[in-house]
Amino acid sequence: MEPPSAPAKPQQPEGSFPTLESLDPTAPHVFLKPVKQINDGQDVARFLTSKAYRDIGKFILQLNRAMCPRKSKGPDGKDIIQTFLIGSEYETQPAESVKNLQRMLAKIEAFMDKAPPDQGPRRFGNVSFRKWYQLLEAEAAALLQEHLPESVLRRSSGGNGSETTAEVELAAYLLGAFGSAQRLDYGTGHELSFLAFLGCLWKLGAFKDGSPNSDIERNIVLGVFEPYLRVVRRLILTYTLEPAGTHGVWGLDDHSFLPYIYGSAQLTRAISETEVMPTEGSLFRAPKPSAIVKSEYVDEERKRYMYFSAVGFINDVKKGPFWEHSPILFDISGIKDGWGKINKVIINQYNYLGV
C-alpha cells in the first residue's frame, strides 16, 4: 500500500508574482542622463548586485510569464486554452499607450525613406545608416513629446523645474535601441536598451491604461516589442548592419535574444492565472522545436510565433546548413522536455552571457 501523499501546497494568489514596481508619483525622484558605467570586470560585478539588474530581470520574467498560454474552465468543465500570437488583438487592438508607441515606431521606420542606402562600394555597413540615425537623433525629443503623456516626460525631483526630467533618460535609452551609427552595427545590447526604455515607461506609470491579468504585458510584447523587432530587422537588411558584440557560433543569435525568451513562452504548456511559469512541457499541438531547421515550416510559423519569427530572420540573412551557422539554437532544438524547458534554458543563458 502506498503512503498517503503530502497535502498540496497552497497556490499563490493572483497578483503575488513579482512585477516591476512603479515609482511613487508623489515622491521626489532624481533623473540623470545615462552614461556608460560598465568598463571592466569589477563594474560587471557591481552591476550584477545592483537594483537596475534586478529590475531588468524582474521585467523580463514578468513579460515572459504573461506570454505563457492560459487555461480556464468552460461551462462544461473542460479546459479552455488561450494563446497569445503575433497579429492577435494584443497587437492590433492594444491599449492606447501601446498604440502611441506603435505610431512612434512607424515614424521612426519611415525615416528610412529619407535616407536611402548608399549605392557605392562598401565592405561593411552602409554609411547611409548614419544619415538615418541623425534623423532619429534630431526628432527623438519631438517623438517622445508627441507620443508620451507630459505627466511621464516631465517628472523630476519636484524642485524649481530646472532638474533633469524623465524625458532625458527615456531619450537616451530610445536612441541606444537602434544600433551604433559609429560602428554601423546592431546587437543584443541595443535590444536591451529598448527593453530598458519600456521598463522605464512601466516604472513611470505609462501603461496604467492597460487591463489587468497580464493583458497590458501582452500588449507590450506583441504590440510594441515585436513591431520594434520588425523595424530593427528592416534596418539591418537596408543598411547591412554588422552584428554588435556577437559571441559568434557560441551565441544564440547575432542580433537578438529576447524574442527567443518570449517566443518559447508562447509555446509552453498552458497554466492558470495562479500557477508559476512551467519549466517543462509544451502547448498541445505546438510546433516541434526540431522544426526550426525546415525553412518552409519556419516561414509559415513566423507569422504567429516570435521564436520562429526570429529564426526566420536568421534564414533571411544567413545561408548554409542551420546547424552550421546557428549551432546553439540547433542544439536547443533537440531538448526533449518541451518548450517550457527551452524557455528556462534560454533565460539561464541570457543571464550567463550578460547580453
Can you tell me about this structure?
There is one protein chain. The protein has 355 residues and is mainly alpha-helical. It has 2 domains: 85-245, no CATH class; 248-355, Up-down Bundle (Four Helix Bundle (Hemerythrin (Met), subunit A)). It is 49% helix and 4% strand. The strands form 2 sheets. It has a two-stranded antiparallel ribbon. Strands 3-4 form a two-stranded parallel sheet. Helix 2 runs parallel beside helix 10 (258-265). The chain is globular and about 55 Å long. Residues 1-15 have low confidence and may be disordered.
Features of the shown structure:
two-stranded antiparallel ribbon, EC 5.2.1.8, globular, PTPA_C_lid, two-stranded parallel sheet, protein tyrosine phosphatase activator activity, single chain, 355 residues, 15 helices, isomerase, mainly alpha, disordered N terminus, Four Helix Bundle (Hemerythrin (Met), subunit A)
Short characterization:
With 355 residues, the protein is mainly alpha-helical.
SSE diagram, text form:
Layout: H1 41-47, H2 51-66, E1 70-73, E2 79-82, H3 89-92, H4 96-114, H5 128-147, H6 150-153, H7 166-175, E3 185-187, H8 188-203, H9 215-239, E4 242-244, H10 258-265, H11 295-301, H12 306-317, H13 322-325, H14 327-332, H15 339-353
Parallel strand pairs: 3-4
Antiparallel strand pairs: 1-2
Helix pairs in contact: 2-10, 4-5, 4-9, 5-7, 7-8, 10-12, 10-15, 11-12
Portion of residues in beta strands equals under 5%
Overall shape: globular
Unreliable stretches, pLDDT < 50, 5 or more residues?
Answer: 1-15
Query: Overall mean pLDDT score?
Result: 90
